[in-house]
Amino acid sequence: MRDPFCAVVTGQSLITHDIRHVQDERFAEVVRFLRQGDVVFTNFESTILGKHGGWPTKGRYFGYSRAEVLDALQDIGFNALALANNHAFDLGAGGVLSTLEEVQGRGFLHAGIGVDATDARKPGRRRLGTRDVALLAIDAGPGPSSMYAENHTAFRPARPGVNRLKTVRKIGVPDGHFRRLARLGGHLQSSPFELTNYAQPEDPPEVASDRELNFYGTVFTQAANFGRMVEVDPGKREHPFVRHPSGGSARRFCDRVSAPPPLGTGLAGCTALGAGLCPHMHRCRCEPFCQPRCPGSSGRGNLQWLANLLRSRKFPVSRTSG
Questions:
Q1: Is 319 within 8 Å of 140 (Cβ atoms)?
Q2: In this model, does residue 156 exceed pLDDT 50?
Q3: Contacts of range 207-216, beta carbons closer than 8 Å, 24 or more positions apart
Q4: Neighbours of 235 (CB within 10 A)
Q5: Is-contact 91 57, C-beta < 8 A?
Q6: What pLDDT score does 297 carry?
Q7: pLDDT score recorded for residue 89
Q8: How far apart are CA 134 and CA 277, in angstroms?
Q9: 81 vs 233, more confident
């Protein structure tokens, strides 16, 4: 008979100060529960201000933590951290490097950020309890390209950052409205140069065909009805392609269940390691059609896709948003 093994999976820890001083029986009960687990997981929804420094990369929704919060999480019972989320780059590359250093120094199982894209895609691996456990973490946006890890090229140095599942939002409109938008763009003398200039520091969004239109940074696509779509890696048809129309029944579908590069690389690595895999996907999309249970249907669709992919392996799958 196999040894008993307990996994405790929680949501996000948006923690900015030490909470170990809390004297409340309800908190003590939570701590006792967490400490039962061999794997005790949370999404660390912050970034560490440490020796690598950093500066705010956001406006109102900026946040950071000191390293003492990691001590607090560890003392409470957590030993596994997903680090890929929309706050991981709030201090820029310096925050990513400090977070990596502090998390590694405390022996957490962790994944989701790295010194470059190859490093950020790697699953973390540790022996917890009686088993080898691997953790894979990925962020599905939305977020600026500058927060995501990049490998070096002949023309660009590597960038520390977050493991990315690239997603693009598109607005579906009926043909008549689409043609009116195109005419309006013509009257305003919209040009590729103008769209590129005002998209900075991003590149302008790509349009797939003459059935799509970049209207000042928003991609409109011809559709039978009005709707919003979130596409995953739309430029590479061998990858999953997920759409979430907002109209009517708010249907969800995927035309493939193969993994995109960040997830596929991690799955292959974990299989080779022979470890049990705990995948985690973070997203922060709050479309109106999902309210009031944000992020709602699109998040469940992405999570279901991931669960379907891993179902035969009997691994827990988690998703958080924030």
A1: no
A2: yes
A3: 208/234, 208/235, 211/178, 212/170, 213/178, 213/181, 213/182, 213/185, 215/181, 215/184, 215/185, 215/190, 216/190
A4: 10
A5: yes
A6: 42
A7: 96
A8: 5
A9: 81
pLDDT at site 51: 95
The full set of domain ranges for the chain reads 7-164+256-321, 167-254
Lay out the sheet containing 109-111: strands in order across: 7-13, 39-44, 80-82, 109-111
Of 26-35, 90-99, 105-114, 151-160, minimum mean pLDDT range: 26-35
Query: How far apart are the C-alpha atoms of 85 and 112, rounded to whole Å?
Result: 8
Which residues does 311 contact at the CB level (< 8 Å), separation at least 6? none
List, in sequence order, every residue forming a beta bridge with 319; answer none if it has no partner: 281
| Residue appearing with tokens 């991003």 | 202
pLDDT at 309 over 90: no
DSSP-assigned letter for residue 288: G
Calpha distance 228→291 (Å, rounded) = 14
The CATH class of the 7-164+256-321 domain is alpha beta
CA distances to 118, 131, 137, 275, 316 from 313, in Å? 24, 15, 17, 11, 9
Q: For the whole prediction, is pTM greater than 0.85?
A: no
The Cα–Cα gap between 252 and 249 comes to 9
How many CB atoms within 10 Å of residue 151? 15
> What's the rounded Cα separation, in Å, for the pair 237 and 274?
30
Give the chain's mean pLDDT. 78
The 3-state secondary structure of 256-280 reads: CCCCCHHHHHHHHHHHHHCCEEEEE
- Cβ burial of 185 (10 Å; 0-12, 13-18, 19+) is middle
Of the spans 75-89, 197-211, 254-268, which averages the highest pLDDT?
75-89
Give CA angle at 237 (253, 173), nearest 5°: 55
Can you state the angle between helices 25-34 and 68-76, rounded to 10 degrees? Answer: 80
What value does the mean pLDDT take over residues 186-207? 89
pLDDT value, residue 255: 27
CB 64 within 8 A of CB 98: no
